[in-house]
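Explain the record.
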Amino acid sequence: MEILLATFTTLFSVVNPFSAMPVFLTLTEADSPTARRQTGLRACVYMVGVLAVSFFAGQYVLNFFGINIHHLRIAGGILLMRSAFDLLTPGGNRDRVSPAALEESMQKDDISFTPLAMPMLSGPGSIAVCIGLFTKRLTYIDMSLIVFGFVLVALASYIILMSSLRLTRYLGRPGMSALARIMGFITLAIGVNFMATAIKALFQE
């Protein structure tokens, strides 16, 4: 349960599905409720796939390029801290999708994989977290719990995306800004923890 809870809480704050709500609403504003639900469901399924592949195959990719896992965790910590500062800074760059990419996505028939699943829900930060979760000490039960944590994050993301219109109306701009700063603060703490743990491990080697 500790592994499952740690996976869910860490990954949920990094995925931050609340930040995907404006893009989701913009790209699906002309869709029917059924089409919107199908798009959200596919995006969350794709997200689980991306995270699972990153978790299981990430270590082999790092070994191929000769990258130490601790180096990845330091880089991931810096990336998370940068994203957190964007959320904490008023007027900061909080967009994970550029305006040009957003305009191009409006012309696509299916936007569930890009830009929703990647990079909105499973971006570089969440991929780095998933790779960092894998260690040789994990048992098959531990790995299955971690993957189940991915599924729970996807389920929570789906619920939030489906409620995005009501949440946006209820919270308003001030509420969304406050929520972004809360998620940014949590993400900043995770980034600092990533860096501190990796640096400590490097000095102990």
